[in-house]
Fold this sequence. Notes:
The structure holds 2 protein chains of 2 kinds. By secondary structure, chain A is mainly beta. Chain A has strands at 4-6, 11-14, 19-25, 32-38, 45-50, 55-57, 60-65, 70-75, 84-92, 95-98, 102-107. Chain A is globular and about 40 Å long. The model of chain A has no long low-confidence stretch (mean pLDDT 94). The mean pLDDT of chain B is 93. Chain B has no helices and 11 strands.
Amino acid sequence: RKEVEQDPGPFNVPEGATVAFNCTYSNSASQSFFWYRQDCRKEPKLLMSVYSSGNEDGRFTAQLNRASQYISLLIRDSKLSDSATYLCVVTGGFKTIFGAGTRLFVKA
Amino acid sequence: DTGVSQDPRHKITKRGQNVTFRCDPISEHNRLYWYRQTLGQGPEFLTYFQNEAQLEKSRLLSDRFSAERPKGSFSTLEIQRTEQGDSAMYLCASSLVGRGGYEQYFGPGTRLTVT
């Protein structure tokens, strides 16, 4: 079993749709959680940190469920520019583990 | 531009040659990370430094790979006797640990092609 698992997608959604991604992790001692966005052939860019209480940044909402060991990302009112790969990241101690990413295509 | 920079952006080399990549982190950041990414995969951790100390190395980092951060500022990643399987994007990231944040900020990467 991979340490961090994501549905690779792709998710194909129309503009304006709401889409949600989940990510599961295996190490219960994991401490910090993030979502990154990566455009084709570009570097990952930090989208948001994920806190136990959940957090929201504009159209994006991230949540952490420690009991079930998963994090989620919700994107509301999808834009064409949201098309990218979304990477789930889990850190604990000295380790940083990236998921393989979920691909999102937003269509006009 | 005060972000993470990497040099070169692209490198094509023949199998068996040595290559060296450089990373300049965000200036006040004390941690520096190296990752490797292949198509369709997320970045895979290779190693990281806290200031000049190399604190962790992945088992992916074979004896042909070595990384340094001599003065706690820029870092170099060297691959000796390159193999075709080394072809990948090599990403560097930095973070400022100690003020509560563990967010890593990435450079544009060095794309290595071994022919």
